[in-house]
Amino acid sequence: MLRIGLTGGIGSGKSTVAYYFTMLGVPIADADEIAREITISNKIVFRKIKTHFGKEILNEENSIDRPKLRRLIFKYSKKRRWLEHLLHPIIISVLKTKIRKINAPYCVLVMPLLTETFHSINFLDRILVVDAPLSLQIQRIKMRNRFSDNQIRLILKSQSNSTERLSIADDIIVNDKTFSILWKMVFRLHCLYLKLAKKHFPSLNNSI
Questions:
Q1: Tens digit of each residue's pLDDT, the chain (208 residues)
Q2: For residue 27, what is the domain's CATH number?
Q3: Residue 204 counted as domain residue
Q4: pTM (2 decimals)?
Q5: Does a structural domain hold residue 88?
Q6: Is residue 73 part of a domain?
Q7: Residue 198 burial (C-beta neighbours within 10 Å; 0-12, 13-18, 19+)
């Protein structure tokens, strides 16, 4: 099975691209969703986060206050690196487990921090980067998340930049036009990935 890593900065449209692949029947695994599941279901991880950040990181239901945690890790880079160091190995382990259970020509792994962790990941066959002009990213973030200008600045500062992401790309989608055009770009890549899967894994059933 061909394994595609999908990444892109906040507001680039990678979630929409992932959704389009889902509509085409492609299995998807999302690192952010796995991270959320881990912080809820893994008691050891929960205790470590609670100990490191203090009880004030919890909400009224005694679970992690994700908006508060997000503000802290984007404001303080050391706290963000600590959390990434804690979660990253577990996320990778879960992703590998999910991959082993998939029976399809190819799958897409949504990994927002792929550029930052690229050198420690050896299980991807291709990397797809979704890119967009910075001004458009900011516009989308404001519309979707209603973050302040300062919050957006901190988030963008914490992520790799466009040049760094594009440097690891095998395939690139520049998402600066309509949803219809974006769909066509995703469909073209879908056809390419099916072709590559058939070439490299001829014994697979090449249908989704």
A1: 999 999 999 999 999 999 999 999 999 999 999 999 999 999 999 999 999 999 999 998 899 999 899 889 988 989 999 999 999 999 999 999 999 999 999 999 999 889 887 666 788 999 999 999 999 999 999 988 878 888 888 888 888 999 999 999 999 999 999 999 999 999 999 999 999 999 887 776 666 6
A2: 3.40.50.300
A3: no
A4: 0.90
A5: yes
A6: yes
A7: middle
